[in-house]
């Protein structure tokens, strides 16, 4: 099967094909689909440990490709990455603090969010996971997860644009005479 | 997609996986050798054998046994092409086998004299062999009025 033939396969079929054939081209295609998204998520959660976490993630996938049992590969990848990031932060306490990204105001604002809000925001926005899956990852109820997501967005807007203060406004009422 | 999400997409568009990391992981992937399936070799061997068999069958001289080029055909007709006139011609009815052939031919030609002679002899009982049915019926039809 050539490089172009993999384009029509979805992630799960591609993983199954790689699992059965160990074709380097199949893995390259799979890697190309997720490498940037995973890297963005990792660097925003833990810049110093991103490379190590990603290496560990892909080497575990290469050594024993996961049995998905009908689940989506995207979910498996980000759940596994999240778990590795937590373990990495536990092993290396110095790296738990995210490195600041000062180039962009929005990205720098995301770095100022609390870890749980940042994680929920990134998993939903960057990794395109549904909030229900994100709630499972964070071991929260869906309601609480949704609240934290909106809270994170509001906090981020506050960091970027400042607090929502409304100036006093005097409304002039004109009497209409008929 | 909201304005805020679009701003985020624009901001992270420049953040991509570094080439060194990609190379490292892809190098690691190359260490796992692809699974070689025996079926592929088997199918290759089978198709090769089939191709050789077809070639042999096409090139084998037995394909052309009895085939002569037009220039080599003999002109005296002694050696005729074996495929010429390959259809069997419908064989003519054998005259010797049917004892009533001549009589039937005469009847078919419109001459009933001999038929009526034989018919009368049969009526008198002076003939051993009886006329066949078709000739008998024709004799009844045509010889009744004859003396």
From TrEMBL, chain A:
<keyword id="KW-0240">DNA-directed RNA polymerase</keyword>
<dbReference type="InterPro" id="IPR013324">
    <property type="entry name" value="RNA_pol_sigma_r3/r4-like"/>
</dbReference>
<keyword id="KW-0804">Transcription</keyword>
<dbReference type="GO" id="GO:0000428">
    <property type="term" value="C:DNA-directed RNA polymerase complex"/>
</dbReference>
<protein>
    <submittedName>
        <fullName>DNA-directed RNA polymerase specialized sigma subunit, sigma24 family</fullName>
    </submittedName>
</protein>
<dbReference type="InterPro" id="IPR036388">
    <property type="entry name" value="WH-like_DNA-bd_sf"/>
</dbReference>
Automatic annotation (TrEMBL), chain B:
<protein>
    <submittedName>
        <fullName>Uncharacterized protein</fullName>
    </submittedName>
</protein>
């Amino acid at each position: 099967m050539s490089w172009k033939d993999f384009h029509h396969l979805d992630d799960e079929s591609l993983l199954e094909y790689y699992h059965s054939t160990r074709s380097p081209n199949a893995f390259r295609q799979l890697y190309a689909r997720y490498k940037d998204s995973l890297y963005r998520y990792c660097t925003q959660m833990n810049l110093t440990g991103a490379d190590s976490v990603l290496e560990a993630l892909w080497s575990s996938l290469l050594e024993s490709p996961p049995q998905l049992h009908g689940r989506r590969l995207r979910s498996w990848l980000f759940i596994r990455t999240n778990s590795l990031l937590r373990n990495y932060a536990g092993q290396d306490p110095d790296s738990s603090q995210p490195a600041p990204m000062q180039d962009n105001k929005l990205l720098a604002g995301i770095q100022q969010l609390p870890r749980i809000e940042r994680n929920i925001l990134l998993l939903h926005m960057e990794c395109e996971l549904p909030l229900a899956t994100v709630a499972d990852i964070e071991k929260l109820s869906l309601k609480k997860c949704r609240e934290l997501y909106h809270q994170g967005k509001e906090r981020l807007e506050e960091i970027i644009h400042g607090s929502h203060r409304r100036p006093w406004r005097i409304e002039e009422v004109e009497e209409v005479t008929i | 997609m909201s304005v805020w999400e679009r701003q985020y997409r624009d901001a992270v568009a420049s953040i991509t996986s570094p080439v060194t990391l990609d190379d490292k992981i892809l190098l690691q992937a190359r260490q796992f050798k692809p699974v070689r399936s025996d079926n592929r070799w088997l199918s290759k061997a089978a198709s090769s054998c089939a191709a050789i068999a077809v070639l042999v069958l096409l090139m084998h001289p037995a394909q052309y046994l009895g085939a002569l080029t037009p220039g080599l055909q003999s002109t005296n007709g002694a050696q005729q092409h074996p495929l010429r006139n390959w259809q069997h011609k419908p064989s003519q009815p054998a005259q010797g086998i049917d004892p009533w052939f001549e009589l039937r031919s005469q009847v078919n030609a419109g001459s009933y004299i001999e038929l009526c002679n034989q018919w009368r002899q049969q009526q008198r009982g002076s003939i051993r062999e009886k006329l066949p049915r078709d000739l008998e019926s024709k004799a009844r039809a045509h010889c009744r009025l004859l003396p």
